[in-house]
TrEMBL record:
Domain of life from the UniProt record: Eukaryota
GO cellular component: cytosol; perinuclear endoplasmic reticulum; plasma membrane
Subcellular location, principal: membrane
Domain called PH: residue spans: 15-107
Coiled coil: 221-248
Biased amino acid composition, Polar residues: 332-343
Compositionally biased region (Low complexity): 251-270
GO BP annotation list: lipid transport
Ranges for region Disordered: 112-136, 251-285, 302-357
Protein name (record): Oxysterol-binding protein
Cellular compartment(s): Membrane
Native source species: Certhia familiaris (Eurasian treecreeper)
Length: 757
């Protein structure tokens, strides 16, 4: 209020806007805090400072449904549903001014909502577009009423003439039967004229009623539009506060420590106010529990010569420079990777020269919220999306990108130890996420029967084939054979949900990897990917969850944990940690790194139980040798930010190639048009392809109904190059490669391929 709180209000209580300082209850720790309150259009909003009015509103309450109460000489209590504000003025006079302003604003808000009269002066004047929308139909109705009036006059004129003629006939000397019939016709004509007059009167009454309610319709329409605008502004405001909080936390490294210590005295996520409701304050009154998912183990670096722990080497293993382990039989000696453009084998032919750039991404603006607000809670694969949200690659090509660091598997073949081999497999499983750190665009949903081949047998030693084997739910089968001594296959179903502020992508299905010489068979599953700031703000992607890699021959295991990003965590972003253990549960290696940069492996020489954590869990202390870098991400090509952040491999995936199947993703016209920068044409082509696919699906559904009526079995869609089998390891029904594709390519016999493009 006035006085020491900041002076008198900015406007008298009778005006439309009322501003001033009041004290607001926050919580037990902070008590009452001074806030700048603004009363306008039936809404009471507050800010920390007057400067915040331009960008950050701390809370708003609608007075039309609020209850106003006074506790004592200076206090005001506002409650609206589950939200309650406890306010205090500097004096009783100041409190009375605010109460008067609040009561007047409440009455005005109620009148604006419920006023039925035409001459009410409380409502705001409608815009010219609103008037035209409402007056247009009224003008049309008036015109139609004039037409009806003209018709009524004609009917009355001709009806009168008809009655005169019938009256003249009655006066003539006609047989008795004729006179009765003429009298009946005369009565019917009179009834017809009365009915037409009643119809005209009813139409006139309808027009009068429409005119009398026009202002009411106008107010209702304006109210709905204001509600929609207010909702959009609130969402945008929340996103701005989210980004401001993120920047503030990044600039205050000591905040995480203070926050964690505060949480030990507070069980709930936020402090409850004295009056029983949660405070609307943001970072001043929010407290977070300490990270419960802290690593279950601690690593310390040991002396590689003596394998003894000393007080001087307790630093984190990731801070040491990789050193030799002096293990003669270790394949880690050759773990330093070559770049993508370097040769990886003497037995392979020189690499074919492939393209190193694509046309730059056009700068087209599009309102994402206008499209996504109707899609909340729906399956993403069922939402029609323009290509503006896509990248010019299909999901089959994104799946093939998992092979970018295939050299890890080539090196794993040379490992004699299964646990050592597991380290390379674990690094390979993490490397597949490195391309996603900047790739927030959505790949094209493949059409049913669409394929993608990547034949690098002569250059890199492997060939890959993907096929879309199901459309709803979307599922793709993938098979890779390497002459270097390994085979990989997977059947992945993508489940995705739009949650309003973020998008969750959950790959379902197992990945299988088998080494030919040893027979080691590894199985693992992917983690959840989350795209944040869908509505407002800069898009960013995160990976979270756990991967368990199991060698079903030796029973070795590797548990990898992808730590979700947190503003208040002291860990490095995108952190991945894990332990490789044998069939007996003995730990042999510690894996550490980040999924967007590198993965390291440290050999364990000794393990012991450490102190018990605050959660009652006992952590294991691993004494390790210096770490070895198994995998490091390749640098992105020059100008990658204008080429959808594609890696060198991704730039080549959609490069036109000869002799591929007619169902190959490279031949998809909408994807090709988008890559060329012709997005409008790509959108038209995308709709054509999707409608063509829907027609095929409707025909297939009709065939299924017909077969059911005839008592016959209907197999549905049968994949071209894959077949469904029960996996002997997992027991799941998966699609595995049945052969025939590469033979068909050699013969250029694609007669079995459907026309999907």
């Amino acid at each position: 209020g006035g006085g020491p709180a900041g002076g008198p209000p900015a406007a008298p209580p009778g005006s439309d806007t009322y501003k001033g300082w009041l004290f607001k209850w926050t919580n037990y720790l902070k008590g009452y805090q001074r806030r700048w309150f603004v009363l306008s259009n039936g809404l009471l909003s507050y800010y920390r400072t007057q400067a915040e009015m331009a960008h950050t509103c701390r809370g708003t309450i609608n007075l039309s449904t609020a209850h106003i109460d006074t506790e004592d000489s200076c206090n005001i209590v506002l409650s609206n549903g589950g939200r309650t504000y406890h306010l205090k003025a500097n004096s009783e006079v100041e409190r009375q001014r605010w109460v008067t302003a609040l009561e007047l604003a409440k009455a005005k808000a109620i009148r604006m909502r419920n006023n039925q009269s035409d001459d009410s002066g409380d409502e705001e004047p409608a815009s010219q577009s609103d008037k035209s929308e409402l007056h247009g139909p009224l003008k049309t109705l008036s015109s139609k009423l004039e037409d009806l009036s003209t018709c009524n006059e004609l009917i009355a004129k001709h009806g009168a003439a008809l009655q005169r003629s019938l009256s003249e006939l009655e006066n003539l000397r006609l047989p008795a039967d004729s006179g009765e019939k003429i009298k009946a016709v005369n009565e019917r004509a009179t009834l017809f004229r009365i009915t037409s007059n009643a119809m005209i009167n009813a139409c006139r009454d309808f027009l009068d009623l429409a005119e009398s309610h026009s202002r009411k319709w106008q107010r209702l329409l304006q109210h709905e539009r204001e509600q929609r605008i207010r909702l959009e502004e609130t969402i945008e405001q929340l996103a701005k506060q989210h980004n401001s909080l993120e920047r503030a936390c990044r600039g205050a490294p000591g905040l995480a420590t203070g926050t964690a210590s505060s949480s030990s005295t507070t069980k709930a996520g936020s402090v409850q106010s004295a009056k029983g409701e949660a405070s609307d304050e943001d970072e001043e009154t929010e407290y977070f529990d300490a990270m419960e998912d802290a690593p279950a183990f601690i690593t310390v670096t040991a002396d590689p010569k003596h394998h003894r722990r000393s007080g001087s080497n307790l630093s984190g293993a990731s801070e040491d420079h990789p050193e030799d382990w002096n293990l003669e039989d270790s394949v880690f000696e050759s773990s330093n990777q070559s770049s993508y453009n370097e040769s990886t084998g003497k037995d392979l032919l020189p690499r074919k020269r492939r393209r190193t750039r694509i046309p730059d991404k056009p700068n087209y603006s599009l309102n994402l919220w206008s499209i996504m607000k109707n899609c909340i809670g729906k399956e993403l694969s069922k939402i029609p999306m323009p290509v503006n949200f896509n990248e010019p690659l299909s999901m089959l090509q994104r799946l093939t990108e998992d092979l970018e660091y295939h050299e890890l598997l080539d090196k794993a073949v040379k490992c004699e130890s299964s646990t050592e081999q597991m380290c390379f497999v674990a690094a390979f499983s993490v490397s597949s996420y490195s391309t996603t750190v900047h790739r927030t665009a959505k790949p094209f949903n493949p059409l049913l029967g669409e394929t993608f081949e990547l034949d690098r047998l002569e250059e890199l030693g492997f060939r890959s084939l993907c096929e879309q084997v199901s459309h709803h739910p979307p599922a793709a089968a993938h098979h890779v054979y390497s002459r270097r001594g390994w085979t990989l296959w997977q059947d992945i179903t993508i489940a995705s949900k739009f949650r309003g502020k973020y998008l969750s992508i959950m790959p379902l299905g197992a990945i299988h990897l088998e080494f030919h010489s040893s027979g080691n068979h590894y199985v693992w599953r992917k983690v959840t990917s989350t795209v944040h700031n869908i509505i407002v703000g800069k898009l960013w992607i995160d990976q979270s969850g756990e991967i368990e890699i199991v060698n079903h021959k030796s029973k070795d295991k590797c548990q990898l944990k992808f730590t979700p990003y947190s503003y208040f965590s002291r860990d490095v972003p995108r952190k991945v940690t894990g332990v490789v253990s044998d069939a007996d549960g003995k730990a042999h290696y510690v894996m550490s790194g980040t999924w967007d940069e590198k993965m390291e492996c440290s050999k364990i020489v000794h393990s012991s139980h450490g102190s018990t954590s605050t959660e009652g869990k006992q952590k294991t202390v691993y004494q390790t040798l210096s770490p070895k870098v198994l995998w490091r991400k390749y640098p992105l090509p020059e100008n990658a930010e204008n080429m959808y952040f594609f890696s060198e491999l991704a730039l080549t995936l959609n490069e036109p190639e000869e002799r591929v199947a007619p169902t190959d993703s490279r031949l998809r016209p909408d994807q090709r048009l988008m890559e060329s920068g012709r997005w409008d044409e790509a959108n038209v082509e995308k709709q054509r392809l999707e409608e063509k696919q829907r027609a095929v699906r409707r025909r297939r559904e009709a065939e299924a109904v017909e077969a059911l009526e005839e008592g016959e079995d209907y197999e549905g869609y049968i994949p071209l190059w894959f077949e469904r089998k029960v996996d002997a390891v997992t027991g799941e029904l998966i699609c595995v490669y049945k052969g025939g594709y590469w033979e068909a390519k050699d013969k250029q016999d694609w007669s079995v391929c459907p026309d999907i493009f």
